[in-house]
UniProtKB/TrEMBL annotation:
Bias (Basic residues): 16-25
Segments of skewed composition (Polar residues): 1-11
Pfam families in alphabetical order: UBD (PF16455)
PANTHER family found in the cross-reference section: UBIQUITIN DOMAIN CONTAINING 1 PROTEIN-RELATED (PTHR13609)
Gene3D superfamilies per UniProt: Ub domain-containing protein, DC-UbP/UBTD2, N-terminal domain (1.20.225.20)
Protein name listed in UniProt: Ubiquitin domain-containing protein 2
Region (Disordered): 1-27
InterPro entries documented for this protein: DC-UbP/UBTD2_N (IPR032752), DC-UbP/UBTD2_N_sf (IPR038169), UBTD1/2 (IPR039869)
Annotated ranges, domain DC-UbP/UBTD2 N-terminal: 15-112
Signal peptide residue numbers: none
Length: 114
């Protein structure tokens, strides 16, 4: 017998509420344009890592949206969220999608131009 708190009611995965990733730091301070370039390079190559283009497109839309819209996108696309910060997700067929933190939020050491 297990503990009362050990039930697996969230086995579907989509019940998880998503959140922004924890604060992080890039190895070197980078500018907003460098961050945008990194993100574009990731999204351009992401479909080559497996999974479907439709799920990658939905993940990109979710990553670029506010949390409420991102949750709606993830839910409607049938994306199973393993990590609430969207760094690890699965589609309904079991394909794994890993998102780097830099496509989900800005680093603490982002150089802001004045």
């Amino acid at each position: 017998m297990g503990c009362a708190g050990s039930s697996q009611t969230k086995a579907e995965g989509t019940a998880k509420k998503i959140r922004k990733p924890k604060a992080w730091k890039h190895p070197q301070p980078i500018t907003k344009s460098q961050l945008i370039q990194l993100r574009e390079e990731f999204w351009d190559t992401a479909p080559h890592y497996g999974g479907t283009k439709e799920i990658w497109d939905a993940l990109r839309a979710a990553a670029e949206a506010d949390l409420t819209l991102a949750q709606a996108i993830v839910d409607s696309a049938g994306i199973i969220v393993q990590n609430p910060d969207l760094t690890v997700c699965f589609d309904e067929r079991g394909a794994r999608y890993e998102l780097p933190t830099y496509v989900l939020s800005e680093p603490k050491n982002l150089i802001r131009s004045s």
